[in-house]
Every structure is written in structure tokens, then in C-alpha cells.
Design a protein that fits this description.
By secondary structure, the protein is of the alpha+beta class. It is built from ten helices and six strands, in the order H-H-E-H-H-E-E-H-H-E-H-H-E-E-H-H. The strands form two sheets. A four-stranded antiparallel sheet has the order 2-3-5-6, with no helix packed on it. A two-stranded parallel ribbon has the order 1-4. Helix 4 runs antiparallel to helix 5 and helix 8 packs antiparallel against helix 9. The chain starts with 12 loop residues before the first helix and ends with a helix.
């Protein structure tokens, strides 16, 4: 902020050449000066005032919002677990088509107890047995499809978690952006107050101000410095949160894009692809599809399984022929006492599917209502911020500039300047608080739309 300082000092040459002595109550850092040196002091005060404030330069890497989203999607460990579980489900699905291991056995067949007299042909035999179950391919196919649908659920759940992390990162990013803007204003206020304090210190020896005014300015400067310290803490906290979300070392140098223009286009909502874009709705769709496949798998329990068995008998007696047994078996799952379970499961799943469809409809209705309300609130907040920016804050700034100019020309008091600054500073802080609320509302709005 440029300040023009014009001092109208009405002193005689005798007063100008006078040497000031120590004034009781004057702070030690305020040195009495000859009036002839006042011009040089004013020049030294004027020079910093004409320096246009520029944002602090930083060697940190500037990360845009889109770049941060990409880093979160690639590095955040919360997302990797979903892909790992989905890969596990894919492997389980491949194993669902496996057969049971074959059974091999050896033992005796029709062997008499020891101590008995038997004929050669009655000595029995050693039996070798081989048995294999053959599952129904239709049942295996249905079970495999159900397991694959579980991996789809995990992947859509990962997308839902990604949307949550994106919203969290966006919220922190916007808060950091507000803090950067707030820091610029606080720095400018600190420079203005420091300049005003130096001017008051120059005027004090000439009875153009009071010692209490200087102490008031010192208090205001300390207050602004405290706000700057708190604001720097908020920036450091935001930086640490973003680094954690991107899974980067905590000592990584990071800076946000302070030129980002944030505006929610709340006037229109794309209704065509809304359901396809919402990850929570897609997760519900995946769960419904999985339940449908589970129901098919339960109905496939009515299909029979098969088993084959081969037994070979090696006789223990002489001149006894070798024998074998071959057998094929089939299950009968349609028997009433065995079909009750899978029929009940199939019927219960049908009700669960209907419940999930009702849940999806409820989520969709609630979301539409929420978005409609948020759209109106965002428009109201945009109008509110525009009022701050276009009328309220410029008027208070002009009021402060007028008070400052009058004070520089010895037509006003420092109290009027402080009142003007206080009103302008309070309104600036209120503006940033409203801006922060608006940005958080934009974050929530974009989270619902998954933009």
C-alpha cells in the first residue's frame, strides 16, 4: 500500500535550531532530534511506503491441485490396500474352478482273521483304491463369477476412498490458499502500522502526539505479529497434511499455486452422467451385481456333483484271479431334505438385493436434495463475498486512507487512524473467514459431484 506523508510543521527557525533534551516517559528507542533533521527522517519513512508489496519468494516446488491428486492416487497407502484385496479376489476366483485332490488308499479285502484254516481262494486280497470327485462345471463357473464380482466391489470402494482423500486434500489446499492471502494482508498491515509508529515517534517530541498513542501502535503491531505467527502455523500444518496425503517425506519443500481461481459452477449440474460418476453409487451397483451372482451361485447348488472310484484287488492265495471294482456316483441335491438350504439362501438374497436397490434410490434422492441446497448457499456466499470485495472493503480502505492523510497533514488524530485501521482490519479478517467457509462449501460440493 502506498502511503504519502506530508508534514506541515509550523516552527520558527529558533525552534528548528533548538536542541532537545531528554523527555520524561519517552521510550529509550525514541531519540530526540533537531527539527532540521525531521526532513531526512520523513524521507527515510517515505521510501519503504512506496515499495509495492510482493509475495514472499520461495524455492519450494509449486504443486498444482491436479498434480497433488495424481500423487495421492499413486502414493497414498490407503488406496493400495483396495487394489491388493481386489487382486486377491481375482486369484480366489481363478482357484474356484479347481477340483478336489484325488484319494488313494490301500488295505485288505475279505481277509480272514489269523488262526483260521481257510482254503487258498479264501485268503483274501490286498486292495488298492483310487477315488476322484468331479465338481459340476456350472457350479464352479457361478462361484468364480461371484468371486470376481467381489474384486469389482473392492475397486469401486477404492474409488470412493480416493474421492474422500481428494476432498480432504482439496480442503487443506484451499485453507492454505486462504492463509497465503491472509499473510499478504497481514504483512501489509504490519508495514503500515510500523510506518505509522515511526511517524508518531517523530512527532512526539514536537507535541504532535502522545506517548500512549505510540504504545497503542506497539500493541497493534504485536497483535498483527501474533496473527502472522498463528497464520504461519496454519500453513505449516497444511503443508504437513498434504505431504502425508501424498506419502512424501515430512521435510519435502512444498508450495501451492497461489494463483488458483476457485469458483463453484453451482448453477447447473450434469444429470446425465451423475450416477456413473458417483463412486458410492457405483459401489452399490457392484454390490447389487455381486449379490445377483451370489444368488445364481446358490441356485447352482441344485446341479449335481460326480464321483468315480476304482478298486483293484491283488489276491493273497495262489491260482486266484485278480479283481477290480469301478464305480461312478452322482449327488442328488434336489432331494427335499438337502434343497432347503440353498433355496432359503436364494430367497433371502433376493430380499437383500431389493434392500440395496432401495438404499441406492435413497442415497440418490438425498444427494440431489443436498446438492440443490448447497447450490443455493454457494450462490448466496458468492454474492456475499462480492459485496465484501466490491463495496465494503474498498469503502473502509478509503476511510483509512483519508484518516491517514489527515493525520499526515496535521488535520487528524492518531486515534482516528487506528479506528480506521481497526475497522478495515476486522473486515479483512471477516472476509477471509467467509472465504474459508465458501471454499469448504465448494470442497463439499465438488466431493458430492466427484469433480
Amino acid at each position: 500500500m502506498k502511503q504519502s506523508i506530508r508534514l506541515n510543521l509550523h516552527k520558527t527557525r529558533r525552534q528548528q535550531n533548538a536542541t532537545w533534551t531528554h523527555i520524561p516517559g519517552l521510550p529509550a528507542h525514541i531519540r530526540p532530534v533537531a527539527f532540521t533533521g525531521l526532513f531526512h527522517i520523513c524521507i527515510s519513512l517515505l521510501l519503504p511506503a512506496f515499495v509495492i508489496f510482493t509475495p514472499r519468494q520461495s524455492s519450494a516446488q509449486v504443486v498444482t491441485l491436479d498434480e497433488m491428486f495424481e500423487a495421492i492416487a499413486s502414493n497414498n497407502p490407503q488406496l493400495k490396500q483396495y487394489e491388493s484385496r481386489a487382486s486377491a479376489m481375482d486369484i480366489y476366483a481363478a482357484g474356484a474352478k479347481s477340483w478336489m485332490a484325488p484319494m488313494v488308499g490301500v488295505g485288505t479285502f475279505m481277509t480272514p482273521y489269523p488262526g483260521q484254516e481257510v482254503m487258498e481262494m479264501d485268503k483274501g486280497a490286498v486292495m488298492f483304491s483310487l477315488e476322484q470327485e468331479i465338481p459340476n462345471p456350472g457350479r464352479q463357473k457361478a462361484a468364480s463369477a461371484y468371486m470376481l464380482s467381489q474384486s469389482a466391489i473392492e475397486r469401486t470402494a477404492g474409488q470412493r476412498q480416493l474421492n474422500t482423500l481428494r476432498a480432504e486434500a482439496r480442503m487443506v489446499y484451499y485453507r492454505w490458499l486462504v492463509a497465503e492471502k491472509k499473510r499478504s494482508v497481514l504483512d501489509a498491515s504490519l508495514r503500515t502500522l510500523d510506518l505509522t509508529k515511526k511517524l508518531a515517534e517523530v512527532r512526539y517530541p514536537y507535541n504532535k502526539g502522545s506517548l500512549s498513542d505510540i504504545y497503542k501502535l506497539e500493541a497493534k503491531i504485536s497483535s498483527v505479529q501474533n496473527n502472522l505467527t498463528a497464520n504461519e502455523g496454519n500453513i505449516d500444518q497444511a503443508r504437513a497434511q498434504l505431504l502425508a496425503l501424498m506419502n512424501l517425506p515430512i521435510n519435502t519443500s512444498l508450495m501451492i499455486d497461489t494463483t488458483l481461481d476457485i469458483h463453484a459452477h453451482a448453477s447447473g449440474i450434469d444429470t446425465a452422467g451423475f450416477s456413473a460418476r458417483r463412486s458410492d453409487l457405483r459401489e452399490l451397483d457392484a454390490r447389487i451385481a455381486s449379490m445377483e451372482l451370489n444368488r445364481v451361485a446358490q441356485q447352482a447348488q441344485a446341479k449335481p456333483d460326480f464321483k468315480i472310484r476304482f478298486d483293484h484287488m491283488q489276491p493273497l492265495g495262489d491260482n486266484v484271479p485278480r479283481q477290480f471294482t469301478a464305480m461312478a456316483m452322482i449327488s442328488i441335491p434336489i432331494a427335499p431334505w438337502s434343497s432347503r438350504m440353498y433355496k432359503a439362501q436364494s430367497k433371502g438374497i433376493r430380499y437383500e438385493i431389493q434392500s440395496m436397490r432401495d438404499e441406492r434410490a435413497a442415497v440418490l434422492t438425498e444427494t440431489w436434495g443436498k446438492l440443490a441446497g448447497m447450490s443455493k448457499q454457494l450462490q448466496s456466499m458468492e454474492h456475499h463475498l462480492m459485496g465484501y470485495k466490491q463495496s465494503i472493503m474498498p469503502a473502509l480502505e478509503k476511510n483509512f486512507q483519508a484518516a491517514m492523510q489527515a493525520y499526515e497533514e496535521n488535520r487528524g488524530t492518531l486515534l482516528t487512524v487506528l479506528d480506521g485501521w481497526e475497522a478495515m482490519n476486522m473486515m479483512q479478517l471477516e472476509y477471509f473467514e467467509t472465504m474459508d467457509e465458501y471454499y469448504q462449501m465448494v470442497t463439499e460440493y465438488e466431493k458430492e459431484l466427484e469433480l
